[in-house]
């Protein structure tokens, strides 16, 4: 997944993982991300043109859950807003690789402002990822 040419600002996110081998498999094979620079304790990933870095941090992370649209949403989490076709392509890729969803792909806020496709899963270190898609980009910040 290469999406490096963009006039939009790109984010950089460094996040903890407790097993770099498992992170390499999940981010490289399951999500299909390209690897950037690496070291013994970290790996750079191209996440649709954004820089994601997995850093070895054996202590792990702590999560809580908040209710949203009838689902327990893991916090903290991060992810991307994709196009609807890219969202469904990624969901199928994840299913093909046997990914276990925390929240299965579905339409959140159906028929309401902010209607969106969303799905949540955890990486091997327990970091929560959300991928979402809006049929209408004007709904991203709708209230």
Outline the structure in words:
This protein has 143 residues and is of the alpha+beta class. It has helices at 20-30, 84-96; strands at residues 12-17, 34-38, 42-47, 50-56, 64-68, 71-75, 77-82, 101-108, 116-122, 128-133. It is globular and about 50 Å long. The chain starts with 11 loop residues before the first strand and ends in a 10-residue tail after the last strand. The mean pLDDT is 89.
Tell me about the largest β-sheet. 4 strands, mixed
Overall mean pLDDT: 89
Number of strands: 10
Strand content: 35-45%
Order of helices and strands: EHEEEEEEHEEE
Radius of gyration, taken over Cα atoms and rounded to an integer in Å: 15 Å
Helical residues, percent: 10-25%
Q: Taking strands numbered 1, 2, ... along the chain, how are they ordered across the largest sheet?
A: 1-4-3-2
Low-pLDDT parts are none
Structural class call reads alpha+beta
Put simply, the count of helices is 2
Calculate the terminal CA-CA distance, rounded to whole Å. Answer: 31 Å
Shape: globular
